[in-house]
Amino acid sequence: MRIIQFSLNRHYNAHKPIVACIGYFDGLHRGHQMLIKKTIEIAKQKELEPSLITFDPDPWVIVKNAKDPQHLSTMRQRINMASSLGIKNIIILQFTQEMAHLSYQDFEKKVLFPLQIKTLICGFDFHYGFKGEGSINTLKAQKTMDIEIIDCVSEDNEKISTTRISELILCDRVAKANELLGYRYQVEGKIIHGHKQGRTIGFPTANIQVDHEYILPSLGVYAGYIQVRNKWYRTMINLGHNPTFNETAKVSIEAYILDFKDMIYGEKVILEFDHFIRHEKKFSNKSNLALQLEQDVKHVRKMLTNHE
After folding, report:
1. What is the pLDDT of residue 308?
2. What is the CA radius of gyration of the chain?
């Protein structure tokens, strides 16, 4: 796989003609996956490399002056997933004020055409150029490349979109969000030292520090999986403020890893959220908390099988 950084102020020499899909692809959900599937299909037909064109930073940072926008996935995750699906080239457009102010005609001339795209695949609602004045109709009007449009991908008569999935995650409906994603929602992080209170009641947890870019599920307890040293384990995940003891203003992410005893401070991990168990609750004492955690762990053991 090749990662290509494209900038307006640097001359670009195309490696070879390509077939490409274009978008921001946050979360790479089932709708995005349809674009990638079509890209790979046409690339095989034309014996060209399937490619994905995306933007960095998020265009809303430039266009709407958004501060620290949150996402379903990081750029690294999107790159890795696109590669696993068969994409050979990731073209990252360095999105600047200059690029944002290009007319749709100039965006075609200065961005799309130099990439030597033989076929461009995009969603039915794709827009480009200043104020989004370019659309699938203007793309179809140009004669330099073929255009393939992917129709709306729906579930329950509603479009599968990043916004819809984000809203589901924020209101603890991660199981439904996973259906629309086509995989379990996951965040990457690092194990850090915590207050170590869990071990005093028989539930030692791994405290996980994740990038502030992630959209996190609502506060509560979840069943999920954690990948440690390339191996997956069932885990009970708690997002909250630790209201029973050591209450904190900042949300903490803790994982009680089933059947695991190793010391893993400093290790990088991946957390997958499978489904919601219960909301965060303040208990009158540690004994009551321990009893509830025992029930939560039983639920995790019963509901989760080995990682697939």
Report:
1. 72
2. 22
Tokens (6 digits) for 280: 């965060």
What is the DSSP code (8-state) at residue 265? T
Rounded to whole angstroms, how far apart are CA atoms 255 and 208?
8
* Other Cβ atoms closer than 10 A to 190: 15
Q: What is the mean pLDDT of the chain?
A: 94
Instruction: Note the helical H segments in 142-270.
Output: 162-170, 174-181
Q: Is 16 exposed, middle or buried (0-12, 13-18, 19+ CB in 10 A)?
A: exposed
Dihedral class, residue 229 (left if φ above 0, else alpha if ψ from -120 to 50, else beta): left
Query: Could you give the CA distance from residue 205 to residue 297 in angstroms, rounded to a whole number?
Result: 12
**Amino acid identity for residue 294 in this structure:** E
For residue range 102-114, list pLDDT tens digits in order: 999 999 999 999 9
Rounded to whole angstroms, how far apart are CA atoms 182 and 282?
34
In the chain, the domains with their CATH numbers are 2-159 (3.40.50.620), 177-303 (2.40.30.30)
What is the rounded distance in angstroms from the CA atom of residue 207 to the CA atom of residue 257?
A: 11
pLDDT, one tens digit per residue, over 74-92 is 999 999 999 999 999 999 9
